[in-house]
Amino acid sequence: MILRNLVLQIVNNKLRKLSPKINIPFKRFSTQVNEKVANFVDIPPERIRNFSIIAHVDHGKSTLADRILEFTGAVKINSGQSQVLDKLQVEKERGITVKAQSASVLYDYKGETYLLNLIDTPGHVDFSNEVHRSLSACQGVILLVDANDGVQAQTVANFYLAFGKDLVIIPVLNKIDLKNADPGRVCMQLKSLFDIEENEVLKISAKLGTGIEDVFHAIIERLPFPKVDKSKKLRALLFDSWYDRYRGVLCLVYLTDGTIKIGDEITSCYSKKSYEVKTLSMLTPHEQSVTQLMAGQVGLISCNMRSHKEALIGDTLHTTGDNVEALDKFEPSKPMVFAGIYPLDQSQHVNLRSAIEKLCLNDSAVTVAPDTSPALGQGWRLGFLGLLHLEVFWQRLHQEHGTESILTAPSVTYKIKLKPTKQNIKDGTDIVYVNNPAHFPSHIAIEESFEPIVTGTIITPDEYLGAIMSLCMDRRGTQTNAINIDNNRVMLQYELPLCEIVVDFHDSLKTISSGYASFDYEHAGFKSSALLCILLNGVAVDELSSIVHITRAQTIGKRMCLRLKDIIPRQLVQIAIQAEVNGKIVGRETLKAYRKDVTAKLYGGDVTRRMKLLAQQAEGKKKMRSVANIALPRETFIEVLKK
Question: Which residue has the higher pLDDT, 640 or 392?
Fold first, then answer.
């Protein structure tokens, strides 16, 4: 024992020299933690704390998670790893969290060992569903706020999400070591917006490790332990899942009642299918095998579940034969942005389908429906929560599964009211929802069309107020509210069309505000709109059609015609490129045909011979234009969609 303590002291002294700036008690790094890993199941529910870290983008959630893991000895300090829980390549490249990750750690407090189940959540609005389902396995949250930037839009959204679930909230100010940090100002914002007193706020620097011990004490003292009963029948909430090529579907569950052991047979309340538990483990943050899981704990179950359709997020697992009441399910997230995904070559269709199924298992917010395009072949119509969500999903398809695919232009869901007929009145189908321009009804059958509207929340410094209001007005926004957070920050609320903000609104907002403004939104109903259809010699091309608002139709239609004129290859006949809205042409360009000089062989004679040849050529082109189909190469569609 004396020799072991001496070795630990030498190692800790070396670590302190390697990292003089990090204020972390190195006495925590001992083999005792590793020895206790096997005794997770011996900890009673009274000494379990389940919590999430929630915050706006780049306020330091993952850095705080790193310090918690290092402080408890779950990972080694100066191991060369940062953002340990950000495991995806896309997270490391973009520097943001897109997937909630959990870790179970042990902490000694006043002579007792506590089990802390931590969930690091994303901060971007497009991944709010990850926050929503992570909170279902928690009794409290750490609300992290940047002491330099202050309260941001997603801070407000996450606070009310946790507040609505009656979770205990621990407010923490991060980055107090920065030169421009102003904790007093940010505390006033918390008081103004959330009625949080300054003496409740912890002040830390996650980067340097300052104040981390106070966070641990607050977690143990302020957060309630899970109200569970291990003597009751098993009930486990499935709140995350992913695919392993050797073990199939892995289910991350939170046990609200009972215990589960390897070899037990469990049944899904949703699918009614039964499975034998093959392995049990806890994430520490790496997988650590255990013999059983008990009520109040978060763990990973492998049970030979092979299909992504069997692992429904929000499902309740129970012991086979028991009659138990299912736990409350989450409200399924509603996709806001839709796009088509097609393989570059139809021979890759099976591989792309398999990749999408596996990735949807890990991202339950994505909706998938088969789709077919005459130009691009068989594919899928996918629904996402936002444009960043779409980009990340597409990037993960390429990086994690090695697929090559074409992504069509994003669109949103429109509500269409059809003109009343005997059939649709009888069937009750006079209202339809369309997210694909190819399925848009004819303007003759439409009585009225509606576009989705969102309520956007913008928090910005005063000096950018005029430019931001102009941007919102340009995007057809209507101001509904304005609140002064403090002397130099304002919170604005606007009603905005979703199609106006889904592509580049966030980038424009960050540009005009020098990155200081933040934005969050939620669905708020529908208002009127129209379809822009592209015609080539009078024939509609569904793949090039898009849904736009009536006030922007002419501008976008002309721009689309000019772009197509440059991209579409010239053919033997003249092509009229037209943009149509509700049966009215709002833009036109003409692509000239290849010219053949049929008079080149003439070297004399009467002029009537020349006129006769030109007339025959004109008649032939007229006939060809009336009966020929314009064959656009696949590369043309790909080029248009890329732009």
Answer: 392
What are the residues whose beta carbons fall under 8 Å from the beta carbon of 416, sequence distance 6 or more? 431, 432, 433, 434, 440, 441, 446, 448, 449, 450
Distance, in Å, from the CA atom of 574 to the CA atom of 200, rounded to the nearest integer, reads 74
Task: Tell me the two tokens of residue 505.
Answer: 């609104």
Q: Does domain 531-642 have CATH number 3.40.366.10?
A: no
Architecture category of domain 337-407 in CATH:
2-Layer Sandwich (3.30)
Token duo for residue 640 = 């248009």
- For residue 391, the one-letter residue type is E
Tokens found for residue 153: 């839009």
Answer yes or no: same fold for 337-407 and 531-642: yes
Q: Which fold has domain 2-222?
A: Rossmann fold (3.40.50)
420 touches 430 (CB < 8 A): yes
For 273-299, what is the mean pLDDT? 89
Residue 284 CB contacts under 8 Å (≥ 6 apart), including other chains: 37, 74, 103, 104, 105
Residue type, 178: L
Q: What is the pLDDT of residues 470-506, one digit of tens each?
A: 999 888 888 998 888 877 788 899 998 887 787 778 7
User: Could you tell me which residues come within 8 angstroms of residue 257 by beta carbon, excluding any fewer than 6 positions away?
Assistant: 228, 229, 230, 232, 233, 234, 235, 295, 324
Q: Return the domain boundaries, the chain.
A: 2-222, 235-319, 337-407, 414-528, 531-642
Question: Which of 37-41, 313-317, 342-346, 635-639 has the largest mean confidence?
Answer: 313-317
pLDDT tens, position by position, 163-198: 888 999 999 999 999 888 889 989 998 988 888 998
Euclidean distance between CA atoms 394 and 377, whole angstroms: 18
What one-character DSSP code corresponds to residue 66? Answer: H
Burial of residue 142 (number of CB atoms within 10 Å: 0-12, 13-18, 19+): buried
At residue 381, φ and ψ (nearest 5 deg) are -105, 115
**H helix runs in 210-312, sequence order:** 212-222
Mean pLDDT of 79-102: 72
- Residue whose token pair is 């004396």: 2
Q: Are 143 and 162 in contact (CB under 8 A)?
A: yes
Q: Is the pLDDT of residue 17 over 80?
A: no
CB 408 within 8 A of CB 339: yes
pLDDT in tens, 576-633: 888 887 777 888 888 887 766 766 677 766 778 778 877 887 777 665 554 445 555 5
Q: What is the overall mean pLDDT for the chain? A: 79
The residues near 357 (Cβ < 8 Å, ≥ 6 apart) are 308
Burial 300-325 (b: 16+ CB within 10 A, else e): bbbbebeebebbbbbbbbbbeeeebe
The larger pLDDT score, comparing residue 375 to residue 359, is at 359
Q: Could you read off the pLDDT of 429-460 as tens digits, one per residue?
A: 778 888 776 677 776 777 777 888 888 888 88
Question: Could you tell me how many residues make up the chain?
Answer: 643
Q: Tokens in use for 553?
A: 């139709």
CATH topology of domain 414-528: Alpha-Beta Plaits (3.30.70)
99 touches 91 (CB < 8 A)? yes
Retrieve residue 387's tokens. Answer: 């444009």
Binned at pLDDT 50, 70 and 90, residue 203 comes out as very high
Q: Nearest 5°: phi and psi at 356? A: -65, -40
Q: Which CATH architecture fits 235-319?
A: Beta Barrel (2.40)
Burial 223-232 (b: 16+ CB within 10 A, else e): bebbebebee
More confident residue, 118 or 417: 118
46-65: average pLDDT: 89
